[in-house]
Amino acid sequence: MLKANSARSASIGDRLFDACNYIFMLLLVFVTLYPFINMFALSFNDANDSIRGDIYFWPREWTLRNYAFVFSESNVFYATFISAARTIVGTAVSVFCTAMLAYAISRPEYKLRKFIAITFIFTMYFSGGLIPNYLLIKELGMLNSFWVYIIPGIIGVFNMIVIRSFIEGLPEGIMESAKMDGAGDLTTFLRIVLPLTLPALATVSLFVAVYQWNSWFDVFLYNSSRHDLSTLQYELVKILSTSDTGSSAADQYADAQGSAEIVTPTSVRATMTIVASLPIIMVYPFLQKYFVKGMIVGGVKG
Prior knowledge:
This protein has 302 residues and is an all-alpha fold. The chain has one domain: MetI-like fold (Orthogonal Bundle). Helices cover 72% and strands 2% of the residues. It is built from 13 helices and 2 strands; from the N terminus they run H-H-H-H-H-H-H-H-H-H-H-H-E-E-H. The protein has a two-stranded antiparallel sheet with strand order 1-2. 27% of the residues are buried. InterPro entries: MetI-like (IPR000515), MetI-like_sf (IPR035906). This is Carbohydrate ABC transporter permease. It is found in: Cell membrane. It comes from Paenibacillus xanthanilyticus.
């Protein structure tokens, strides 16, 4: 009888815990997704109607005027191209170079691997500062150039730790077999290590791609005078700043037929936010299965 009562109490407790857990997770999902859903609703809602407020989850009066205005700006398409270019090139170069460094540091026969690893980890806690970095970029001749988006962040220390931890978990016999077959370090790295570390590489690629896509401060520092090197996020920042001052050109514009179309700073801000964030959101589901595994391995072995 006591065992039956204890089992019944445990069952009730487990159910209560599961119910509270589900409620908490649903609230967390709601709090996380609501800002994006609200921005989506505002971007597709008529600007005049949005002034009335009470737009939460769904547009009250559907319209594409906000998107027409955003894409009528001549620099948006080219800024999108620059953002995509720096994301693709920056991610590919950074992940490949970081993986090579991680492979070198993971090899036990490399005598200086601990010193090199400590040197890189040291840079995670101390930096030269904004002005020395700017002077360094200037001396390297990378001001007003596309490569200022790629070269300074070519190695990510945290990413290197994740990849190194994954490589150290690989069976050593595989690499020894490759060397017995006459493969050098480069061949082993390209044909053995890279394919086996795909989960870690996918995780790091997501980190780097999100950073590259969302970066705007480096554009402001190094390429603010080059409109042809502006990125989508920097254009969003400029729209947000002009909207806050109330001097946005989004107040009113003429459509192809010459009629006046009202577009408010709030509606343009919401539209630009959706345009800037949607591409990276679409990429994430394809890397999610690798992302979880890569983070677990990096966290346990790091």
